[in-house]
Amino acid sequence: MTDRIRDFLRSRRDDGPCMVLDLDVVRDNYASFAKALPDTRVFYAVKANPAPEVLDLLARMGSCFDTASVVEIEQVLATGASPDRISFGNTIKKERDIARAFQLGIRLFAVDCEAEVEKIARVAPGSKVFCRMLCDGAGAEWPLSRKFGCVPEMAGRVLEQAHRLGLVAYGLSFHVGSQQRNPLMWDGALRSASTIFKDLAERGITLQMVNLGGGFPTKYLKDVPAVKAYGQAIFRSLRKHFGNRIPETIIEPGRGMVGNAGVIEAEVVLISKKSEADTMRWVYLDIGKFNGLAETMDEMIRYPIRTEFDGDATEPCVLAGPTCDSVDVLYEKDPYELPLSLEIGSKVLIEGTGAYTTTYSAVGFNGFPPLRSYVI
């Protein structure tokens, strides 16, 4: 919570839950990434928060951008950033979207299978491609599934196919899991990447780039290492596995760039119990899974919640959203400690919510509007 956010909330008209994001924090975060990994290009993951103000700021600061759709590409181009600062990082793309991206000047595409390579060869000839490898997400609070990537043994064959079809087999990528709190988790993937680099070099294909992905965390209830610790660990692994021939590297921070820049203000709608003998309170907010807090799914992300009654006696409670859907419960398996003095109508501040909240907010489910967003 910054003073700028606090002042904004104090003066705003109450019009339902909202997320307020402080651009000064984003500016500081970008500077930290650039300093921690000075020889690595930053490709901001637009999906984390595509607010025009965020994109404009990062474009002015020199950031590149990882995009997942043609719409995101167009949003970045609207800032004045050139197409060579954009990658189409989604491995699942319609052929017509690849063609549109190519028409807009995009020349860097992610793949994870030969069929995707063939699409790109047909409609984006001569482009650079990098193959995403499956990666162990152990230690991540939001582990990624097997939906994206292929086993390292297959990645080399995918890039060979790209080379045969006239594309530039540019490099490899991986993702160690979102909200990864262990800086050492990049080491195993870099070991696999170096093996593929060597194998393909023996076949006359010279890879140039390793995309280190995202995974850089923001602080929720648990402390996380500083960005500097990640930079140091990654550089040590690069030296260990690539020696003096370190490839070009890029990173794709999303949560780590904007997560701690945002705070959601919400309101307590109801406090109740399920029976006279029940000892567990249910606290219902005017925001839930469908209004921006989708990452509470399986209670993986536990946000810090502040109230005006902090310091009073607390008890665990079930925390839920306002919609008529039974899955709209935020914390029940591990109840959340909140003050006993909390009342209906009380405001709560949900911190660390600058990433994956406005973009996960449903459009009109149960008639509730999407989460309002203010960028200051």
Automatic annotation (TrEMBL):
The modification N6-(pyridoxal phosphate)lysine is found at K47. The keyword Glycoprotein does not apply. One of its GO terms (cellular component) is cytoplasm. The active site is at C324 (proton donor). Signal peptide: none annotated. Residues 25-258 form the Orn/DAP/Arg decarboxylase 2 N-terminal domain. One of its GO terms (molecular function) is ornithine decarboxylase activity. GO terms for biological process: putrescine biosynthetic process from arginine, via ornithine. Pathway: Amine and polyamine biosynthesis; putrescine biosynthesis via L-ornithine pathway; putrescine from L-ornithine: step 1/1. Pfam families: Orn_Arg_deC_N. The keyword Ribosomal protein does not apply. Keywords: Lyase, Pyridoxal phosphate. It catalyses: L-ornithine + H(+) = putrescine + CO2. It comes from the Bacteria. Its cofactor is pyridoxal 5'-phosphate. Its EC number is 4.1.1.17. Belongs to the Orn/Lys/Arg decarboxylase class-II family. PANTHER family: ARGININE/DIAMINOPIMELATE/ORNITHINE DECARBOXYLASE, ORNITHINE DECARBOXYLASE 1-RELATED. This is ornithine decarboxylase. It comes from Lichenifustis flavocetrariae.
